[in-house]
Design a protein that fits this description.
Radius of gyration: 21 Å
Strand content: 15-25%
Helix content: 10-25%
Number of strands: 7
Largest sheet: 3 strands, antiparallel
Structural class: alpha+beta
Order of helices and strands: EEEEEEEHH
Shape: elongated
Strand order of the largest sheet: 1-2-5
Number of helices: 2
Amino acid sequence: MTETIPVIHLRCRFGGSRAYFICPGPRNGTDCGRRITKLHLSQRYFLCRHCNQLAYASQFEQPLQRALRRSNKKRQRLGISAGIAEPLPDKSMINRN
């Protein structure tokens, strides 16, 4: 099977250009036409997230799960081991960049 997906190049604000795919997916009887950087394989076609009806994992998180994920992410940025049971270090021990 062969599928042709159009690619366009748009100029960037500070020089150069960026390539985008044009989603060939059907939407209301016409092509989707969204300008996207990633295509996702679904069954036999490469389509955008919207046409594939894909959701982000975080959309299914409960509020507590989201809070824990965000807390662990902040701890990792500071160089602290992840986990709610881990004690916080002194201010002088935190790796500052």
